[in-house]
Amino acid sequence: MHVLVNAAMSVDGKLATYRREQLRISGDADFARVDRRRAEADAVVVGVGTVLADDPSLLRFDRERRSEIETTGVPARVVADSQGRTPLDAALFSGDAPIYLLTSEATPPERRDAFRDAGAQVIVAGTDRVDLTDAFDTLEHEGIERLLVEGGGELIFSCFEANLVDELSVYIGSLIIGGRDAPTLADGNGFLGSFPELTLRRVERLDDGVVLRWRVENEG
Ligand SMILES: NC(=O)C1=CN([C@@H]2O[C@H](COP(=O)(O)OP(=O)(O)OC[C@H]3O[C@@H](n4cnc5c(N)ncnc54)[C@H](OP(=O)(O)O)[C@@H]3O)[C@@H](O)[C@H]2O)C=CC1
Ligand SMILES: Nc1nc(O)c(N)c(N[C@@H]2O[C@H](COP(=O)(O)O)[C@@H](O)[C@H]2O)n1
Predict the structure, then answer these.
(1) Is residue 185 within 8 Å of 9, Cβ to Cβ?
(2) Ligand 2: does its nearest atom lie under 6 Å from the Cβ of 23?
(3) Buried b / exposed e across 103-131, counting CB within 10 Å, b at 16+?
(4) Where does residue 84 rank: exposed (0-12), middle (13-18), buried (19+ CB within 10 A)?
(5) Residues in Cβ contact with 19 at an 8 Å cutoff, skipping those fewer than 6 apart
(6) Hey, what's the signal peptide range on this chain (predicted)?
(7) Which of 158, 177, 200, 208 lies at 20 to 30 Å from 120 by C-alpha?
(8) Which residue among 5, 9, 23, 25 has the greatest number of ligand 2 atoms within 8 angstroms of its CB, and so is best to mutate?
(9) In angstroms, rounded to a whole number, what is the distance separating the alpha carbons of residues 120 and 48?
């Protein structure tokens, strides 16, 4: 499986304000670039924090790009949600794209059934928190080869921590958001001593910002 993390952040590294409300950081050209990345993906994944904050549908993608790469259908939508906090009326449950709920044993069986009834395929990996390595393996067995991780900061950190990321692209918008409690590109507990190693591959000016793309030098 190839895992690309893509997000938009301010100059000071924030994904949103301290209120954790959805914020438009990308300009039109960058949103068009994101649509192309989604079109190239088999699935797009977000954390439940993003679902609760943004209620994304994740259905926007460049259909022409998708047909150019001869991929049919709609990219699947995936949520990492250890305790089953995703609302059953979330926008993710609308539309035809397949939905995967990655969860843990902490979600009661009846709640898992409710997600199935709402149309999701439920993947249980981990005891208290989603074990992303196991969950991504299961997605791969389901035929997902190209996975786009959109955030937020907690999920992105965990993907790096589990050594699951192959590429990172970040749009840096020309604004300062500030706030010690605002989500950043990689939150979690933070690394100490051993940091993920990145190689800068591309720098592109877009809208009033810049897109940077790195390859991640994974261990092993
Ligand atoms: N600018 C941008 O490009 C983007 C911005 N955002 C913004 O980011 C903010 C949300 O980010 P954030 O609060 O970090 O939330 P996330 O979307 O990263 O979701 C985090 C939650 O996911 C659940 N989760 C399940 N398994 C794992 C795991 N293994 N590792 C980490 N998390 C896991 C956890 O909740 P639980 O334990 O209950 O399962 C956790 O609290 C919003 O403000 C949103 O607008 C989001 C995406 C892109
Ligand atoms: N690339 C990017 N730039 C921004 O400025 C953003 N706010 C986001 N947010 C992500 O897009 C999701 C919403 O997508 P849809 O409206 O459903 O198409 C949101 O949940 C974040 O993951 N991304």
Answers:
(1) yes
(2) yes
(3) bbebbeeebbeebeebbbbbbbbbeeebb
(4) buried
(5) none
(6) none
(7) 158
(8) 25
(9) 14
Rounded Cα distance, 23 and 157, in Å: 20
For ligand 1, whether the C-beta of 54 sits within 6 Å is: yes
pLDDT, residue 96, reads 87
Which residues, 6+ apart, have CB-to-CB distance to 178 below 8 Å? 12, 14, 18
Please tell me if the CB atom of residue 148 comes closer than 6 angstroms to any atom of ligand 1.
no
Answer whether 185 contacts ligand 1 (Cβ < 6 A): no
Would the pTM count as exceeding 0.95?
A: yes
Query: Of all protein residues, whose CA lies closest to atom 12 belonging to ligand 2?
Result: 56
Q: Which residue has the tokens 């989603």?
A: 130
Query: pLDDT category, 73, cuts 50, 70, 90?
Result: confident
- ipTM of this complex prediction, to 2 decimal places: 0.98
Map tokens 């069986």 to a residue: 109
Residue range 196-208: average pLDDT? 97
Asked whether residue 220 carries a pLDDT value surpassing 60, the answer given is no
Lateral strand order in the sheet of 209-217:
120-124, 99-103, 76-80, 43-47, 146-151, 2-9, 167-173, 209-217, 197-206
